[in-house]
Amino acid sequence: MVIAIVIDLIDNKTNGSVITAIRFCEGLRARGHEVRMVAIGAEGSGDCNVEERYVPVLTEVSAKNQIKFGKFDEKRIRKTFEGVDLVHFIFPFKLEKKCKQLADEMGIPTTAAFHVQPENVSYNAHLSWCKPFNSLVYFYFKNTFYKKFKRIHCPSAFIAGQLAEHGYRSELYVISNGYDPAFVPAAERKENAKFELVMTGRLAPEKNQQVLIKAVARSRHREDIHLTLLGNGPRKKALAKLADRLGVDVTFDFLKKEDLIKKLQASDLYVHAATVEIEAIAALEAIACGLVPVISDSKTSATSQFALDNRSLFKDNDEYSLAEKIDYWFERRDERLRMGMVYAQSAKKYSLERSLEKAERMFSDAIRDSEAGELQEISLVPVIQNN
Questions:
Q1: pLDDT of residue 383
Q2: Average pLDDT across the chain, whole number
């Protein structure tokens, strides 16, 4: 297949959706497909590197969360779209909307992914308490973009359920974003000077690293714990101040893939405290490296799907509950090592190869319908594909 992928940017390797898009692009190419990207920073053969679009106020706010908006260039993008079998969209912003119109005009079948969770918007707008606001964002995304697609890629069953509840009537394909096969358990594990606790994720309100810092401060073993927070974001200074005030031994870092793998392999326990999450590949990568996870049971996060039992779940935003789970695993080294291997095995069903196979089926379904001359009508009842 010849596939065009539209995403506002690919030049920021700290954004999870960007990393996912690049990984999918590289994976599809490795499987023999020709992939052309339309994005800020796209520099491959056949790609279209678009300029950044400035949006007053929103550009400044979005930059803090590693997002930039691409500028539509019809002449250049039309050339990129010539000869493609399908166009796949990652975000629901203006560049994608204009490219969708162009693809329809050119008679090219399309699919879209749902990567921007409305709760991410509300948390960063300090409106996390306002459920009607989240519903309004779901409605806005649906009516301005997603209702124009027959098929939507959902990274988790959780978000597919959310779309169905909010009136999305497309065929919803549950396809994990998939983790890189380089993430594997260490050949051997060495004892650390301190208990190494780690969390990966953007340093932003909805990721809730502050509850992890507070939980470590309440741990019976706080003096023997070293916490590493991997990621960048607007909350870094506030989190550092909190850790200093509570006397928590913490390191902030952002690592390249090879160093990230080594760090995860050498750690003792992984915590994912995020209240809002469509999937959390970061947690999956840690699990694939043989780490037992402790995950928030938040109702607006899909990450709890990775927990194999209640020992790996804590009550959302509850530092006491999280401290209890950290202490449980701290005090049970043998069980932690045993379960780490069980978790590593469980991660395999979310492998990138399996995800690419499912994405190929979704793309083929869309192309088949187009070749058969079928109208891209949206069904009245959403269908969730989860096979």
A1: 55
A2: 92
Q: What are phi and psi of 172, to 5 degrees?
A: -105, 115
Whether 83 and 123 have beta carbons less than 8 Å apart is answered as no
Q: DSSP letter string over 308-357?
A: SSGGGEE-TT-HHHHHHHHHHHHT-HHHHHHHHHHHHHHGGGGBHHHHHH
Which residues contact residue 310 at a Cβ distance below 8 angstroms, ignoring those fewer than 6 apart? none
Contact between residue 7 and residue 15 where contact means Cβ atoms under 8 Å apart: no
- DSSP, collapsed to helix, strand or coil, labels residue 171 as strand
Chain segment 43-68, per-residue pLDDT in tens: 988 999 999 998 887 777 677 667 88
Q: Which CATH architecture has domain 2-178+352-385?
A: 3-Layer(aba) Sandwich (3.40)
Fold of 195-349: Rossmann fold (3.40.50)
More confident residue, 165 or 15: 165
Residue 71, judged by CB atoms within 10 A of its CB (0-12, 13-18, 19+), counts as middle
d(CA 101, CA 114): 18
User: Do the beta carbons of residue 53 and residue 94 sit within 8 Å?
Assistant: yes
**Domain boundaries of the chain, sorted by first residue:** 2-178+352-385, 195-349
